[in-house]
């Protein structure tokens, strides 16, 4: 099969809860948050488990779980297609699912992936091919309140200056993504 074109990464997000929880998962002071990442084919592996941790940590940073103690919130992310920048797509799908569900949040967040080319050029939202050719790939989870980094993932090597350059580009791109979120919400509620 041919490789998907640029922008062809898609993730389906489903959010369940807040629901009653019993036993060891119950937290007395806040909601227990679980994130499950399902690959397009096969069973989840080490890569999915690592991404689940980053996704859960990012969600926990903004979910006001104290408003739903002794409950569970489960977020399931199913990869439909991967044309590159998958982790940032998962972050964006997770945030939109939380927003759509009405779970109380302190802020929104978005994911931005940057690839560093061999010559040091920064490529935003890289395709699978661009990721394969990159010297480093960095993904940032950025909050909407102060544009601060909630989580980061990197693969490959880059200098501190290059990382800062990627972060600055990601923070600028975050403005566009948050604008997209606003448009999505506006479209949804203008129909009802």
Automatic annotation (TrEMBL):
GO BP annotations, alphabetical order = nuclear mRNA surveillance; poly(A)-dependent snoRNA 3'-end processing; rRNA catabolic process; rRNA processing; U4 snRNA 3'-end processing
Give the keywords, sorted.
Cytoplasm, DNA-binding, Exosome, Nucleus, Phosphoprotein, rRNA processing
Query: Does the keyword section mention Ligase?
Result: no
* Entry superkingdom: Eukaryota
Q: What Pfam families does the entry give? A: RNase_PH, RNase_PH_C
Q: What are the residue boundaries of the Exoribonuclease phosphorolytic domain, all occurrences included?
A: 7-104, 108-172
Q: Indicate whether Transferase appears among the record's keywords.
A: no
- MF annotations from Gene Ontology: DNA binding; RNA binding
Chief subcellular site?
cytoplasm
Q: Where in the cell is it found?
A: Cytoplasm; Nucleus, Nucleolus
Q: Which InterPro entries match?
A: ExoRNase_PH_dom1, ExoRNase_PH_dom2, ExoRNase_PH_dom2_sf, PNPase/RNase_PH_dom_sf, Ribosomal_Su5_D2-typ_SF, RNase_PH
Q: What interactions and quaternary structure are annotated?
A: Homodimer. Component of the RNA exosome core complex (Exo-9), composed of EXOSC1, EXOSC2, EXOSC3, EXOSC4, EXOSC5, EXOSC6, EXOSC7, EXOSC8 and EXOSC9; within the complex interacts with EXOSC3, EXOSC8, and EXOSC9. The catalytically inactive RNA exosome core complex (Exo-9) associates with the catalytic subunit EXOSC10/RRP6. Exo-9 may associate with DIS3 to form the nucleolar exosome complex, or DIS3L to form the cytoplasmic exosome complex.
Q: Which family does it belong to?
A: Belongs to the RNase PH family.
UniProt protein name: Exosome complex component RRP46
* Species of the source: Pampusana beccarii
């Amino acid at each position: 099969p041919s490789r998907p074109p640029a922008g062809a990464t898609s993730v389906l997000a489903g959010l369940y809860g807040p629901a009653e929880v019993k036993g060891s998962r119950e937290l007395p002071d806040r909601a227990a948050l679980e994130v499950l990442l399902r690959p397009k084919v096969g069973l989840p592996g080490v890569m999915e488990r690592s991404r689940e941790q980053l996704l859960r940590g990012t969600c926990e940073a903004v979910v006001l779980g104290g408003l739903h103690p002794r409950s569970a919130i489960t977020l399931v992310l199913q990869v439909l297609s991967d044309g590159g920048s998958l982790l940032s797509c998962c972050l964006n799908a997770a945030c939109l699912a939380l927003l759509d569900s009405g779970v109380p949040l302190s802020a929104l967040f978005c994911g931005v992936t940057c690839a560093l080319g061999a010559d040091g050029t920064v490529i935003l939202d890289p395709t699978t091919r661009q990721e394969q050719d990159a010297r480093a790939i960095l993904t940032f989870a950025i909050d909407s309140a102060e544009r601060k980094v909630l989580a980061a993932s990197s693969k490959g090597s880059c200098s501190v200056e290059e990382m800062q350059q990627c972060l600055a580009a990601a923070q600028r791109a975050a403005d566009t993504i948050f604008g997209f979120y606003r448009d999505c919400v506006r479209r949804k509620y203008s129909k009802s």
